[in-house]
Design a protein that fits this description.
about 230 residues, alpha+beta, three-stranded antiparallel β-sheet
Length: about 230
C-alpha cells in the first residue's frame, strides 16, 4: 500500500501544530488497482482503472492461441504439400516387376556383389531420368545365380556384407547383416537369428546369352510372408 502525503500551506500550519497521519486517511489509496491518467476535455486529469490481472491474462492467452493456430496453418500447409510432392512418384507409377540386365555370367563369383538399379521415375508432373530405384546382391554357385533384395525384410534398412560371428556355428564368417538391428543371414540368404521375420527376399533370375537379368520387386517389411508391394 502506498501513502500519499498531503501538503498544507505554511500560513495555516503553526510550527507547534502536529497533524497525525491518521487524519489524512482520505489521501491514502490502495496500489492493488492500476490506474492511468488521461486528459479530459477540461484539461483536468482523470483516473481510469485498467483491466484486472485476470482479464489481462485471459487476453494474452487468447492472443497467443490465435497466433499459434495461424502459424501452424501457415507452416503445415506447405509442409504437407512438399511431402505429397516428394512421395507422389511412389503412388503414381511403380518400377517393380521389370527385368534389369545387371552383369555377365562370367563376372560373378561366390562372393556376393552388389548392383545398383537405375531407371526413369514418372509421376503426374514429370519424368526423372536415371534415378536409383534400388539395389540387388548377386552371387554365382556353379552355373546358378542367386539374387537377393538389398533391403532387410525386418524394417527396410540396407543390408551389407562382412565378417560376423555366425550364431549357429560359433565361427566368424562372411555373412549378410543389417547394421540397424543386427539381423544376420548366411550367404544363401537364410536368417541366422530372430531379428528378421523371414529370410532375405530372393528375386527371379534369367540368363540369356551369358547375360544376367533380374526381376526387381519390392516386398512388405516386418511380416513373415513374402508379399509383393
Amino acid at each position: 500500500m502506498g501513502i500519499l502525503h498531503a501538503v498544507v500551506p505554511s500560513d495555516t500550519l503553526m510550527a507547534r501544530d502536529v497533524y497525525p497521519v491518521s487524519q489524512f486517511h482520505n489521501f491514502t489509496f490502495t496500489m492493488s488497482k492500476k490506474v492511468t491518467d488521461t486528459e479530459s476535455k477540461t484539461g483536468e486529469k482523470e483516473k481510469k482503472p485498467l483491466s484486472s490481472p485476470r482479464q489481462e491474462t485471459r487476453r494474452d492467452f487468447f492472443k497467443v492461441s490465435v497466433a499459434t493456430g495461424v502459424g501452424a496453418c501457415a507452416v503445415g500447409a506447405p509442409v504437407c504439400a512438399a511431402v505429397r510432392l516428394v512421395t507422389a512418384p511412389l503412388f503414381v507409377e511403380s518400377v517393380s516387376g521389370k527385368f534389369y540386365t545387371l552383369a555377365t555370367l562370367d563376372s560373378l563369383t561366390e562372393t556376393p556383389q552388389k548392383f545398383a538399379l537405375v531407371d526413369d521415375k514418372k509421376d503426374a508432373w514429370a519424368t526423372l531420368s536415371n534415378q536409383k530405384i534400388g539395389s540387388i546382391f548377386l552371387r554365382k554357385i556353379g552355373d546358378e545365380v542367386q539374387a537377393f533384395h538389398s533391403l532387410c525384410p525386418h524394417m527396410g534398412c540396407m543390408i551389407q556384407t562382412g565378417r560376423k560371428m555366425n550364431p549357429k556355428t560359433g565361427a566368424e564368417e562372411e555373412l549378410f547383416y543389417c547394421p540397424c538391428h543386427a539381423a544376420l543371414f548366411d550367404l544363401e540368404g537364410k536368417r541366422l537369428n530372430g531379428v528378421a521375420p523371414r529370410d532375405m527376399d530372393s528375386l527371379e533370375v534369367k540368363i540369356e546369352d551369358g547375360r544376367v537379368a533380374v526381376k526387381f520387386e519390392n516386398f512388405t517389411f516386418s511380416i513373415a510372408d513374402k508379399k509383393v508391394t
